[in-house]
Amino acid sequence: MDSTTSIPDAVASPTLLFRVGGNLYGCHIAEAREIIPMRRATRLPGAPAFVRGLINIRGTIVTVLDLGQRLDPKRGPTKGGSILLVRHNDRVVGFVVDRVEDVRPLSTLVEGADAGVKGGSGAAGIVKGIATSNDATVVILDLATLIKQVLLS
In the chain, pLDDT over 90 holds for what percent of residues? Predict the structure, then answer.
């Protein structure tokens, strides 16, 4: 038996890692549909600042949310970056992130909606847990809950 410690497959899940601001976030890889380069969105009148607008992806109209502004309302709009497309029920929603990092198997160290994360009101209820990757803390987001919060508000 090898003396190194490994994470059992049942515990580790493939996690898509991405940066927003100076923080490292992640989501289960099955939540991600596609990653596309940043593009201009058509702004929706009266929408909150974190709703960037609408884009057309191969005939599908996609609502684009600025994850940085959603998590930290004092932050300005994200410049550049990528759009992470996520399927939720019958809708596709895009999240603007600063940079997509990697896909790695991670095991959650702390689970729960608050998971000990201290953030603005934007982080309430959307944190699945906290993990580590190469000595960096990764906040695992519940993108489905975030989409529900935005679309039902």
Answer: 47
CA atoms of 27 and 104, how far apart (whole Å): 11
Query: Which stretches of the chain are assigned E, i.e. beta strand?
Result: 13-20, 23-28, 32-37, 51-57, 60-66, 82-88, 91-97, 99-106, 110-111, 127-133, 136-141
Distance between CA atoms of residues 46 and 51, nearest Å: 10
Express each pLDDT in 130-141 by its tens digit.
998 888 899 999
Query: 3-class SS at 71?
Result: helix
Q: Which CATH class is domain 13-152?
A: mainly beta
DSSP state of 69: H
Enumerate helices (H) and strands (E) in the chain, giving the number of each.
Answer: 2, 11
Domain boundaries defined on the chain: 13-152
Residue 80 and residue 98: Cα distance in Å, rounded? 7
* pLDDT beyond 70 at 89: yes
Contacts of 140 (CB under 8 A, 6+ apart): 15, 25, 26, 27, 28, 106, 108, 115, 127, 128, 129, 130, 131
